[in-house]
Automatic annotation (TrEMBL):
Alphabetical list of InterPro entries matching this protein: ARM-like, ARM-type_fold, Armadillo, TPR-like_helical_dom_sf, TPR_rpt, UCS_central_dom
Domain of life of the source: Eukaryota
TPR repeats (start-end): 12-45, 50-83
Xref: Pfam families: UNC45-central
Sequence intervals crossing the membrane: none
Span of domain UNC-45/Cro1/She4 central: 283-469
One Gene Ontology biological process: muscle organ development
UniProt keyword list: Chaperone, Cytoplasm, Developmental protein, Differentiation, Myogenesis, TPR repeat
Name listed for the protein in its UniProt record: Protein unc-45 homolog B
Any one GO molecular function term: Hsp90 protein binding
GO cellular component: A band; perinuclear region of cytoplasm; Z disc
Region (Disordered) location: 1-23
Amino acid sequence: MAPEKSDSEMTSQQWKEEGNAAFKESDWEAAVRCYTKAVQLCKEDGPEKSVFLKNRAAAYLKLGENEKALSDCSTALDLVPDDPKSLFRRCQALEALDRFEEAYRDARQVHTVDPGNKAIQPILARLHGIVQERLKLMSQTSNKVAKMFEIAFDMTADKEKREVALNNMVVLARENSGSQVMFKEGVVSKIASLLKLEKNEQIFLGAVRVIGELCKENLERTKSILQDLGVPWFLDILNCQKEHQVNAAQYCLQTILNTLSGLTNKPDSKPKPELCLGRDAIIELIMRNVHYSALDWASRLVEIRGLQRLMEVASELKEYNYESSMEITDSTRSLVSVCLARIYENMYYDRARQDFISNIDDYVKGKLITPELESKVRVVVALTSLLLGPLDVGNNIVARDGMMEMILVMAGTDDILQQKVACECIIAASSKKDKIKSIIAQGVNILKKLYQSKDDGIRVRALVGLCKLGSSGGTDASIRPFADGATTKLAEACRRFLISPSKDVDMRRWAAEGLSYLTLDADVKEKLIADKAAIQALIELAKTGNQAAVYGVVTTFVNLCNAYEKQEVIPEMVELAKFAKHHIPEDHELDDPDFVSKRLIVLANEGITSALVALSKTESHNSKELIARIFNAICSEPDLRGLVVQQGGAKALLPMALEGTEKGMRQASQALARIGITMNPEVAFPGQRNVEVVRPMITLLHPECSALENFESLLALCNLAALNETVRKRIIKEQAVAKIESYMFEDHDMLRRAATQVITNLILSPDLVKQYEGKNDKTKYLVLLSADEDLDTALAAAGALAQLTAVSKKCCRKVVDVESWQETMRSLLGNPDSGLQFRGVYITNNLMQSCKEVAERLIETDIMEILMALSLLEDGDEKVKKFALEALKSAEEWKLIKKPGAVSDEENEDDVE
């Protein structure tokens, strides 16, 4: 026997044959890999390469990768024009991509070059009907568009009729036929002319939205529109103070950027209603496009010194009643902090990060070199934004000689403006323990003095500074930087600011930030959770959508839920630390699970979910992580999950599970999994959402996730897989099967059981059946698990095997090829559990009916005797008896056994007594 060739020794023809074998086994991925090797090795463009390409296209079609199939077929047709198979497969790909006219063209060509091709005839008839219907629709659409144009662009027509016409045009632009007709009829130039004169806001907005819809996911049309209108046109409509106009313009611009970069609009990418000025909208556009997977603007912003411009915006002093050169909102500085953090996150190598810091350095030095007090104040304001954004960069600046001293001097002056900005900077800088110690030593007395100020703005900032310093011990009950009872008094002071109706939103958000530090103390948590007025004030503050309030409110809720990250306590390490006389953190008795559970119930009943939904619109990934932590903590209580869904929590969690920090996505995914376990997925995740939620569940099937996360994900996937074939296909398409199956090998009973139950539901999909029919041991492992010691695991495995053998003769053959298959079947048929016994007799019946070869294998064993006994049991389960008799009947039909009382040809009277 000749030795097998290595991959490097195989020819293109041999790779094609390997691909054909894989294709026959329904292993589409392997087929694609083999055909790709064949294409790469084929040096000449000609008929041979055309075969490889159209074969690969067939595999791509099976995988649903229609664009790739289309490309391969087109290339194959360039090599061999009018090849029927290439045309046929391109027709299939085009139809799947809803390009019906082109598909119809190819179908007609197949019929022309291969008139005897019967497979193309039903496709040709179907496509003919579709194309005719689309032509009819296009004609109707042309008439509609003509009427709408006549009304919408007539300045003398009735205002309400024009508004309705523009709104109808927006709807029509979302349809392929409508957008084609309007674009062809010159709607872009008509809108450009209209908006030069139009004063009606609703008509103006409708026209801008039409442009946005025309640009969505259509590259050629977007390029044409940009060329016709010009970028300045979009910036002009963005540069105004009308909230709705800015929102429409921002969405339009983001759609254009997405189309040009090949991205799609995400569910949460719509403009925030609170961003009512163009500057905030532009900052948000920058944030969305700095990531490498978007347009990768981060490095470009550093190159063109865009950081200095952002720092200039961050240094604005509007909230201090100081003359400002820019029009900014209450959210602008918070957005700049997040934007700077997002840019810094995308500095992936040391040199890039150094360039980022150098740019910030240049800005700071440029301000400090001038003698004006305003420049120094602006530096401190901008530094606060840095400390709330890219913390490492902010700490780097604060650590410079004389910087903290300058801030403390400002805090100690009698000038209200300097006191405010210095207080804020001290609060932001008190993040690392080494800095807190020095600030406590130098700044506590200054903060106490400022707290005596008659100006509420100074008092509340000084109060927050004291709160942050007083909470530096974190959750460690043994550390108290201030005297006993001081934190409770500070909390009461924060509460007064928070619930006072005379205080504005800015005052209340500072009070919330103070509580965010103090609620690390369990005594403060218990006192606050009993204060319904304060809880409601926090929730109402969250609902305002004020970006600056997000951190304080969210962190307070995180602390109340004990949803902060906890370091794992290893008993051996604790003993070692005691031996070395190191400090051992102590948990407060009020942080026991019972107290936490009660706090979660109170928060949920007070309506925290609606507050979290409002807060989830923030652009800060860190804030989203905290929000996800709260959601997850609430969802840890099964009785609260329905309330979370009812108030929109599941909808808010989905985008957070798909984008954000790694920990934030995990927390959101686990919360969704917990909802999916308790509730009917059709109710919890209605419509398309039950497909979109699949990916977050799968992310929890990772070795770095905890066993609890793995288990909850499997339970939720099990419920989802039971919904419909669309969901099952998505689970399979997301490459989840291999991950799920890996848990079927776990020693942990609950994980093994849950994974097997998911496969039981997934096996309903023909796509998974094809996988089990391939060259692998998947079926073998189901046979082995059917005899598992854990009853529920055995029930699930046997259930999957029952469904599999009912639809696949190949898998029936695989069952009897397993070495221990007889032991497994005896175990099932003789099991005292009626559920297992029924599954056993059902599988046996499937095996017997599958083919004569498998039936003969059964006859050779004592399984037939067991079936006979089961069929005769007087007090046996009726369903078991029914399928036992059916199996025996199948054996008779295969003529492997004789009917009772029948006399064979070999018998004679001498044999009868």
